[in-house]
Amino acid sequence: RIERSGGCVVLGRVNGRLAVSRAFGNKPLKSCVIPDPEVLSQQLTQVDEMVILASDGLWDVMGEDVAFQTAQRAINEGKGLKGAAKALTTLALDEGTRDNTTVVVIDVSSRSGASRAASAPAGSAYLQQTPDIDRQSLNRQHSSPVGGSPAGSPAPLNLHSGSGEGQMWLGRLQSSPAGGSPAGS
Questions:
Q1: 44, 108 Cβ separation under 8 angstroms
Q2: Which string of DSSP letters, residue by residue, matches 60-72?
Q3: CB of 32 closer than 8 Å to CB of 15
Q4: Claim: this prediction has a pTM higher than 0.85
Q5: How buried is 41 (Cβ within 10 angstroms: 0-12 exposed, 13-18 middle, 19+ buried)?
Q6: Same domain, residue pair 94 and 121
Q7: Where is the composition biased (Low complexity) (predicted)?
Q8: Residue pair 88/58 in contact by the 8 Å Cβ criterion
Q9: 92 and 132, same structural domain?
Q10: Is residue 43 assigned to a domain?
Q11: pLDDT tens digits, residue range 96-141?
């Protein structure tokens, strides 16, 4: 599809630059990429603890096991979801990512209220972004905690990021009843 539209794939990247072939907002490669997302639905179970949504700036330099262990360690150290997201972006930079990095850590655990209170309310999420790929970007990061819902009641998670001067709407996650599929926008 990329080659038919006049592009090429070099080192697994569109025209040697973009790591994904489904994207929007990239004017130079607009003719080579499509905005249609590839969607995967996964039913969460009682043993699932968190969901880590991240850009290729994270996944280019670490696997899912390292990401989970890093986030879990931060939460166990009392740093919560904010600390988990920050630990992941910091580790991506330490591992030499050459791309900006966005990480959202969502608590989906069924821990008891007492152990959950130590990290975040049920259904909470935290977004961490690095606007640039240099170390100084960590001092300018745009991040914001995201509210949750009372234990046991599915509610949407509004994901947004802001610097205090303005906020950027990123979307909404809706937890679904057992057997249903998650809805998002």
A1: yes
A2: TT--HHHHHHHHH
A3: yes
A4: no
A5: exposed
A6: yes
A7: 143-156, 175-185
A8: yes
A9: yes
A10: no
A11: 998 889 999 998 886 544 444 444 455 566 666 665 444 444 334 4
